[in-house]
Amino acid sequence: MSEFQQATIVKKANIYFEGKVTSRTVILENGTKVTLGIMLPGEYEFSTSVKEEMEIQAGRLQYKLANEQWQTIDGSGVFYVPANETFQLKVEEVVDYCCSYFNE
Q: What mean pLDDT do residues 51-60 have?
């Protein structure tokens, strides 16, 4: 999906790692929460409380899920993070991303 219809956008930004990772929260008409953001080059670690879909729109990064090997996305791609997990990122080029949250 390249755009969202009938959505509410939260004006206040989510800012992490001294501004190197930012996003805006979007609430879709059906109540689904997504965030649209930018990550600057660097190394980051995030924790999840619900299952997440990380859709990379542009950029280059490596990601590592718990107990797995490093994987690379160059350009665009998708990976999923299970609920209650920690994952690591090595952002090599500015990354444009969309994160979807699943309350299963």
A: 97
